[in-house]
Amino acid sequence: MTAAGRRRREALRIQAAELFEQKVRPPEVARRLRVSRKSAYQWQQMWRDGGMRTLVSRGPSGSRCRLTPRCLEKLAGYLEQGPAAHGWVEDQVWTAARVATLIGRKFHVSYSVSGATRLMHRLGFSPQVPARRVAERDEQAVSVWREVTWAEVKGPGRPAGVTSASRTRQASPGGRPKVTRGAGAAELPS
Q1: pTM
Q2: SS3 for 85?
Q3: Which of 7, 14, 121, 143 has its CA 20 to 30 A from that of 111?
């Protein structure tokens, strides 16, 4: 959930607590705040158990980042250098698995592939998307291929005037031919 979503959810819980103090029942709270009845009943129980303070957010859920802010800066620098600078020379793609391996090598911290993906997004990167074109790319060869080879492979396509469109609908059962078991099959010798 985003920070804005958490703030909105917290505001709804506080509004719900104010309604509970006015003795408004959970189904009515759910209707007024446009939330599920289940949420309204859960919030009422939390409010009963600990008052308003239990409905205030305690920050984002989940585990904390295991890298310090300084390590995050270093990681962003490593990602900017590209995969080839860190031993992956076959392409210029940062995959989440590669980033998890890089974190382990550089910071001695273990991250799962999904954790590495979230960390990359936090730093403004996305996995499996090249940051730039491959260094070995030959633009002239690419343009020749597009003009010559692709034109041959692609083919002329369908002429503009030959297309047709019609509505289709299921045939009525009376208009279908009757099919008998084994019709059209060759007779087997006995």
Answers
A1: 0.42
A2: helix
A3: 7
